[in-house]
């Protein structure tokens, strides 16, 4: 048998980052586009569209983001306003995204002798049903796969496995996870059903309330946030060009942008303090002094400092940001996959084959 290819994946609400032992890494939108009609199919020349082409051809596509607002990553899809047909389409989109992402970083695809073993990060408190959903989508793409907490993959990749608290701010969820030398239990972690998507919605609402004639799509709002987003005084204005009745016009978005971004601070600080309070007092201080911000939301200017200030009344804290918010999770997942004993992958592979076509989710602690 050929040497296995190991893959680490951070299956995010808005973006999916992936890295492999073959030396490749990439990031794609967590979305799939289907041509709306036969004309679109003829123009596009394909049945399914991925990556940057989604934005370029979005008017001709039926675009599905399977984890939008954390629908399938947080809570029960059946209770999130989706029809059975929509859930089926979300499932198909998830499988296609995983398949496409793995294909981009696996040069040996098509070589039946090279097994593909992967670790996929999910939110801290993703339920068994949601983990099973991801496992089902990964079946056929991986020969064996393990599902782990997204914040844990960040800590593992940075070799910060003791006295660490990871805050992973994604588009659909914010995950907070304490790391103290062992794989954390589910009830020791917190998942908040807010994130970058909620900031985008609030920013768009505040922007249009202040400038009713401004025309801005959700993509435009998101791009402004990613370029200028901040939560503390930065000493400069955020002025962008937006259409007003079709005419490009300079618009000062400083105040609505700050207000939208700042909406994340209070729930994060409250969740951090409540979580830390459950631990031994001596360990509480060590956790507060070693907080890591990961995920796309970690890049909001001043967020680390604002959290430190908010923690002052609880004894203070020290917050740092990951150096590569895009790939920190996938690289950590890859490292975890490569460090798992061969016997662990053999056992997982056997379980997946025995459970086909619906493999059972296996907790990381049991797999290791």
Brief description of this entry?
The protein is 39% helix and 20% strand.
Describe the structure.
With 368 residues, this protein is of the alpha/beta class. The protein has helices at 38-44, 53-56, 84-105, 128-138, 150-157, 196-210, 218-228, 254-262, 265-276, 281-288, 303-310, 328-339, 342-355, 364-367, and strands at 5-11, 15-20, 25-29, 32-35, 61-64, 116-122, 144-149, 164-169, 174-179, 190-192, 239-244, 247-252, 291-294, 319-321. It has a five-stranded mixed β-sheet. Strands 10-9-8-13-14 form a five-stranded mixed β-sheet, sandwiched between helices. Helix 4 (128-138) links the parallel strand 6 and strand 7 (144-149). The chain is flat and about 60 Å long. It starts with a strand and ends with a helix. Residues 358-368 have low confidence and may be disordered.
